[in-house]
Design brief:
The protein is mainly alpha-helical and about 230 residues long. The protein has 12 helices and 2 strands; from the N terminus they run ααααβααβαααααα. About 25% of the residues are buried. One of its GO terms (biological process) is response to virus.
Length: about 230
Amino acid sequence: MKPAAKLKPEPELAAKPDRKPKPLAVAPAKKHTVKTDRPVDDDDPREGPSPKSEAKASSTGSEANIDSFSLKDLWDLRKDYRRQPDESIISWLVRLWDAAGEATILDGTETRHLGSLSHDPVIDQEMMRETSPCSLWIRVLGSVAERYLCADDLYMQQTLWKTIEQGIQRLREMAVAEMVFSDDINTRNPDLVSCTSVIWRKLTRLRPLEYASALAVMKQEDMEETVLDMGKKL
C-alpha cells in the first residue's frame, strides 16, 4: 500500500479568513523640498508641461498654496516664469503677473534654488535677500525697484504700438512701472492701478496716428478709472 500523500500547508492568510486587511496609510499631500546648494540648471534635460506651477498659481491672496517645492517643482517654475532673451523687464513683469499673480509663495532657500529668472544679476540677487516666505511677485517688484531709479527708466523700454492688443499691453506695462515705485500696498494688481492722465498721455504718445482723435476723447479727466477699465475701452 502506498503511503498517504502529505497535505501541503495552506498559506497563512487562507487559514485566517476573518482577518481584515489593514487600510493603507495615506501621507499628507505636502511636497518635500530637497535641500541642496545646487541651483536649478538651465540645461536640465527634463521637458514637458509644468502642472506644479499651474497649481501654485490657482489660488490668490491669503489662500495661496504655501507647500514646499521640490527641485522638479522649481525647475517647472523657472521654465514658466523666467524672462526670455528678447523680452524687456517691463513686458516680463506683466507676463509674470498673468502667470503667477501673488499665489506662488517661496522662502529664501527655495528662491536661491530657483536660480536666475530675470537674467539681470542685480534683480536676481535682490530676490534672494528676503528669507521668510513671501510671494514671488512681491520679491520681483522689490528687486526691480532696487535695480532702477524711477518709473521713467522702465518706460524707456517701451516701443510704439500698432494694434489694440499692443496698446493694452503698453498700458498694463505702464501700470506695473507705476506700481513698482508705489508705497500703496493695495495696488499689487496692475489692472487695478488708477489710469491717471499722466499714464494716458504717455500711452497716446506711442499710438498710431489713426488712433489719435479717438484716444484724445476716450479718457475723461474728471473720472477715476482703472487700467482695466481703460483697457476695455480700447
